[in-house]
Specification:
Length: 131
């Protein structure tokens, strides 16, 4: 969780330094962050200019038109910018998680997954017996 917050703060600093804008950062517990951002998005609030958004919110917010489709921005990129960004390098499942109807409404910058590991020999099971 601390690493995620550091990445978000770093991304905001890079954005604001590159754009020449001033900045103020807020670091909130995840549940508080979700509640505040949902309220801001649903009411057209202007407290936050840039924020972290995950798959949990992305598709619902896009359906509600609380997010902007990013595809037009990608289309306006120069050939050099497209080569540098290399969208093909993004993991499709991660991009799909922040997209709606094939259109990106977010940009994934990390991913995670979960799985269950079980020692079959300890339970006298074999992988084929689970089919």
């Amino acid at each position: 969780m601390i690493m995620k917050r550091l990445v978000v703060v770093y991304a905001c600093v890079v954005f604001f330094v590159a754009s020449g804008c001033g900045r103020q950062s807020s670091v909130l517990p995840e549940n508080d962050l979700r509640q505040r951002l949902t309220t801001e998005a649903s009411t057209g609030g202007t407290t936050y200019d840039i924020f972290y958004l995950g798959p949990y919110e992305a598709q619902t917010w896009a359906k509600n038109k609380w997010l902007e489709n990013l595809e037009p921005y990608f289309q306006r990129m120069t050939a050099q910018e497209r080569a540098w960004y290399d969208r093909e390098d993004l993991i499709k499942g991660m991009l799909d998680s922040v997209s709606l109807d094939g259109q990106p409404y977010g940009i994934p910058f990390y991913g995670e997954s979960s799985f269950i590991m079980y020692p079959f020999s300890a339970a006298s099971l074999s992988p084929s017996s689970l089919e």
